[in-house]
Structure formats: structure tokens, C-alpha cells
Amino acid sequence: MMNKENTTEEIIKRLDDLGKYLSNEHNNNCDQEVCLDAIDKIKSLERWKNDLLSGMYVNCVYCGYRYGPKENTPVSMAEILKEHIEHCPEHPMSKLKLTNEEFDKQHKELIQKIKTLDDLLTSFKKTLCSFKDKIN
Asked: Per residue in 36-46, pLDDT tens?
């Protein structure tokens, strides 16, 4: 019986062979770029699965980012993942943070426009009063 690591290595090798086959310019059976991207994703997930089974790494459940192994890992794995989550392109909290930052930016721009309009209105009122005084 094979251990998990050998199985993973075997799967990765077979995926590499499939990738080479699909890269062959004579193969027109599928969209090569899509297939090669899928193979890379499968290899990444296979490594991630093996990491989870071995308990040596901590992984982001959204993108597969991993940190470890245990002997090189700091005490607070939560801090490492927290830092990663803030920048992970696939994590919903990261997306929410970016959306929030965009809303904050738009809010500040709107506040500035309102202040500018208020200043223009005040100036217009003063000019109107000045004309009114001149007419009377």
C-alpha cells in the first residue's frame, strides 16, 4: 500500500504528463489554456489535501495559501492567517475590505463635492444680495 506522499507525487506526475500532452501543438481536442489552468489548480488542491492530511501546514480555505511546517511555524498561526486574509484575492473578508475602502473614498469625494456646492451656493446668495441692494 502506498503512503499519502507517494500517491500525491504519482498524481502530480500524471497531471504533469497530461499537461505536456495538452501542450503538444498537434492536440486540438480542447481549449489548451483552460485545461492547463485546471491541471495547475488540481495539482495545487492535491498538494493542499496532502498538507491537511499530514498536519504540517496551515492553509487558507479560499486560495490554498499555506504556512508551515510545524518546526518553522510561530506560536500564533492565527496572526499569520489574519495577515494573509487581508490580502487574499479569493477571501470574502479581503473583498469586503476593498469594497469598504472604495465606499469610504467615494463618501469622502461626495462630502467634498457637497462642501464645494455649499460654498458656491453661499457665494451665489451673497452676489444675489449685492445685486438686490444695487437695484434698490
From this structure: 777 788 878 77
62 and 86 co-located in one domain = yes
Answer yes or no: do 50 and 61 share one domain.
no
Range of the domain at 66: 57-90
Q: Angle at the Cα of 86 (from 82 to 88), degrees rounded to 5?
A: 105
Among the residue ranges 16-20, 81-85, 99-103, 115-119, the one predicted with the least confidence is 16-20
Tell whether 103 and 126 lie within a shared domain. Answer: yes
For residues 79 and 117, state if they share a domain.
no
Between CA 29 and CA 103 the distance in angstroms is 45
Q: What is the pLDDT of residues 70-79, one digit of tens each?
A: 555 554 566 7
Q: How far apart are alpha carbons 9 and 15 in whole angstroms?
A: 10
Calculate what percentage of the chain has a pLDDT beyond 70: 68
**What are phi and psi for residue 67, nearest 5 degrees?**
-135, 135
Length of the chain: 136
Distance CA 28, CA 49 (A): 31
112 or 128, higher pLDDT: 112
